[in-house]
Amino acid sequence: MSDLGSSYLYASVVVVYMVALAIVGWLGKKRVRSSSDWYVGGFKIGGIVMGVAFFATYFSAVLMVGFAGSSSQWGMSATVIGMWHAVCAVLAFAVLAPRLSKQFRELNAMTFSEFLSLRYKSPALGYISAGIIAIFVIPYTVSAFIAMGSALSVVVGIEFWIGVLVAGAIIAIYVFSGGLFSATLAEFIQGIVMTVSVVAIWLFSYYLLGGFVEAHEAMAAIDVNSVTFPAFGTNLWSTIVGLTAVMGFGMLAQPQIVLRYATISSRMNIKRALVIATAGSLIFPLAAYSYGALSRPILASFGIDVMNKTQIPSVDLIIPKFVTIAFPPWLSVLFLAGIMCAATSTIDALVHMTAGTMTRDLIRPVIRSMSDKGQLRLTKFISLAVSLGCCLMAVYPPGLIYQLTAYTWQVLASSFMGPMLIALFYRGANKYGALTGMVAGFAMAQLWYLFLAPPKTPLYPFFPGVAVSIVLAYLVSRLTKPS
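Request: output the structure for the sequence above.
Response:
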């Protein structure tokens, strides 16, 4: 196929995708009659849809492009990160979801911050947690825009900034209209497409290298470390172990994901979601990390060294370059569709959560006379502002995709893990313990990140941050008056 023909084909995929999401937004708009519908879908979203939406939100173009690109340099040891995702999905739905769903309904909480505020009868908890979310979710949102912009620029052949703005326009189309219902319906479709995409790239990568054994031999021929687990204490060991904890167990306290497993309509639907979310959380990351590692010997056969920055200046460009060079046009188109689905499925959750948090938890308490319809209108417009702001930040990337993502997840997990867990499992939990755990966990993660993060020490900030959050939340609650 000629370059012009390929460009038209790629452009048509983008247009069709935008039209499809516009239809989803229109369908969602018909279901949104109140702020509750926009925030939590009226607690009426079923298990099958939410199970797919869960892993579509959990994984994104950040994994397909950023983490997979990094794994081309890390090797097959990166698949260890992916294998733990399924374990954490089981914990989310089997252990946390039943209790969270029950408490969200009893409290009529529509955001994560409102849940903490009502559960502990503490407006201060609501304000502080909302402030942390509003500020520190931004780097993760920006990283997802960078991933989609990078893919569109390399695969379609457009300027990076145009790809970023296209991503923003796609998000605005349906999140603005239908809130959580539109987001989860779109994520259901997106989760299927993106899984098919990564599995196809994964299998075709082995085909290009002549099979499973031959592929691993080709990797070992370039660098034997690419098919072995890194030695204890090395920088790569710290990275793999740290990201396994952050991207696996850290997921349990990510507000945008909590909303996916705390707002399911019934206990039976939680069980259905468990099966689907676990399967998706195993297959998708295993495929992405694997084809990332396999890209190194395949690109080497085309004379491209992924370790050479003069050939590929950023790891975020490795996978788009890999797909456009090594794969037939039809598979590149499928990859592009998967990238758009993966990026938008995460960005929509982040934009939806951030807009809801800013409106309901930061602005509404100040403007108490705001009506429900006024709150809904303001939330929609803030969702547009957040999308535009993150787009503009992504045009001038502040860092690598996996670095931005890991930073956000460590901060959020360290802040919220303790308050959330004692709320669910300790009857004596109170606002003093929750506030102490949140502030101390946040501070520990930030200080460790600034002064003791790898390579200075082998531990990621996630470990001390989450440990301090849980321990202090429990101890302070135990030593003070219970709620």
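The chain has one domain: 3-404.
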